[in-house]
Amino acid sequence: MKILVINCGSSSLKYQLLDMDNQNPIAKGLVERIGLPGAVLTHRPDGGEKEIITAEIPNHSVAISLVLDALVNPEYGVVNSLDEIGAVGHRVVHGGEKFASSVLIDDEVMAAIEECIELAPLHNPPNIAGIRACQELMPNVPHVAVFDTAFHQTMPPHAYLYGLPYELYEKYKIRKYGFHGTSHKYVSQRAAKILNRPTEGLKLISCHLGNGASITAIKDGKSIETSMGFTPLEGLMMGTRSGDLDPAVVSFIQQKENFSSEEVNDFLNKKCGVLGLSGVSSDFRDIEQARDQGNYRAGLALDVFSHDVKKYIGAYSAALGGVDAIIFTAGLGENSPEMRLKVTENLEYLGVDIDPEQNNVRGKEVDVSKPEATCRVLVIPTNEELMIALDTLEIAQRG
Ligand code: ADP
Q1: Going by CA atoms, what residue is nearest to atom 13 of ligand 1?
Q2: Which neighbouring-strand residues pair with 2?
Q3: What are the beta bridge partners of residue 92?
Q4: What range does the domain containing 316 cover?
Q5: pLDDT digits (tens, 9 = 90+) for 86-141
Q6: Which residue from 10, 56, 2, 59 is spatially nearest to 26, judged by alpha carbons?
Q7: CA of 201 relative to ligand 1 center, distance in Å
Q8: In ligand 1, which atom is closest to the CA atom of 287?
Q9: 0.90 surpassed by pTM
């Protein structure tokens, strides 16, 4: 079966068409600047040339119809007819407490995703727009929702509750939800395969270190604790997000800088993290380069970030009662041998022992530990699209 995976952001749309017989992508692409001047679709058939299509793209519905046109285009398309696509998997950021796994989308599910808009006002609306547009153009195939939050629904209350009056959880559903679930689930399943162990009894710490970054403790294949919280702002310091702060800092900044509550939220999401600390960039490559040229604040940002990751690994090994493997994934985790070394330095007490030569790897699935290490360190490129497609296939086949 061929499965189309759709990931709609507010002004962008990423897609991938996968052939599930071999799990390989047939084509992938990106629509940018939806609703803005200069909108563009970049479509790339697997192994083929990039095709750039410019058009007026006022909304997600037009974006999706352009994507479907590109997929069947006689010149650079990859299927003869849309009938070849057996199902569509949609990434949905927030499923609240309603969804602990992926689901076939029906009216009831759509209503529940709409209810979660309050929890993810920036993310769920474009996700919903993408689903509606796709359903209109492909009414006869199953559409499946795959939630970023679902994998973390196994967290016990002692991990997801904050030190707030319980009534606020009951009234407003304020709790830790966690994100990047599709990625953490995918790499943890790969880790079990690499280690040749059943997920039962396996204790993993998965470090998804990209522009957004989060760490998850996984026991018996289930998330038991994760660093992102009510929103993706909590946890590690990230490219532009502050991560954990003393909550009193928020109102202090608000007062001093004369920010509204929206402005302070925007500030903490977009102007902080390694960007704010380094003053250089949100991109770790730029920061490593600036540090090498003697920029003090760039070095400081890298030190704070790696210290943050190390602290979470320590905390989560305590929550798990030991750790069999630490996984590094996403842009920085997959591609920065230096960051992996920095993070795992002094973790010998956990049984970590990295082989620096093996560790000198980028974007490949490798166990970078010395043979005798009792806690393995794994580099596993994430593949959220494949995970979404696998869930979609399973649900579509269930009928
Ligand atoms: P997201 O999906 O959250 O936007 P990615 O997973 O693509 O992010 O990760 C982007 C981050 O990965 C950027 O900060 C980038 O600097 C970092 N990154 C990518 N390649 C490298 C590299 N070779 N060395 C260091 N950092 C890298």
Answers
A1: 283
A2: 19, 85
A3: 147
A4: 197-384
A5: 999 999 999 999 999 999 999 999 999 999 998 888 889 999 999 999 999 999 99
A6: 2
A7: 32
A8: 16
A9: yes
